[in-house]
Amino acid sequence: MISNPQDVGHFLGGIGALIWDPTAQKYLLLRRADARDFKGGSWECVTGRVDQGEGYEQALHREVREEIGAMVQIEFLIATTHFYRGVPQPENELLGVIYSCLIQHPEQAQFGAEHSDQRWMSTAEALAFLPEGHWLRNVILRAEQLRRLVPAELRQTFLMEGFEF
Predict the structure, then answer these.
(1) Overall average pLDDT of the 136-157 stretch
(2) CB-neighbour burial class of residue 12 (10 A; exposed 0-12, middle 13-18, buried 19+)
């Protein structure tokens, strides 16, 4: 029970799409353009905010199209996240969902204005490239663990049905 209406949370919704090329067994890493409003120059996967009236999966597909011009399939959920985009105040608070996504045509992935570089890397290459403590290292390690542990039949169900009801 909420005693004070001001106690009700108001958050930004966000997505992360860790894109995996199953043929080459590589992940897509993107370098944020230096001019971006938050963490310019840092390496990430596709990320973005959920627009009003959108679900997480709709936002994921829109952000992937906007950021790299490609289509993906959601393979599984990797993690949830909670952080502040800047100063820790309510208007900067974000709750996010990070997905593992498959891309069938990696040659279609081309970064746009939001990014200044992209690299396809194996797990070992990404872990050697990203600095210790970088959030994307943890995401990649979790994705690798889930890919080993989640049965292929269940992953196929996720590919066909998604996660949203």
Answers:
(1) 96
(2) middle
User: What is the value of pTM for the model shown?
Assistant: 0.91
pLDDT tens-place string over residues 71-130: 999 999 999 999 888 888 888 899 999 999 999 999 999 988 888 899 999 999 999 999
- State how far the Cα of 106 lies from the Cα of 17, in Å rounded to an integer: 14
> For residue 47, what are its two tokens?
């990320």
CATH assignment at residue 134: 3.90.79.10
Strand ranges inside the chain, DSSP E: 12-21, 26-32, 43-44, 46-49, 73-84, 93-102, 115-121
Quote the percentage of the chain above a pLDDT of 90.
74
- Domain of 18 in residue numbering reads as 10-159
Within-domain flag for 3: no
How many domains is the chain built from?
1
**Residue 164 located in a structural domain:** no
Tokens, residue 60:
């994921």
Residue 5 belongs to a domain: no
CA torsion angle 146 69 60 16 (round to 10):
50
The pLDDT of residue 88: 86
Rounded to 5 degrees, what angle do the CA atoms 34, 38, 42 make? 55
In one-letter notation, the amino acid at residue 96 is G
Adjacent-strand bridge partners of 81: 96
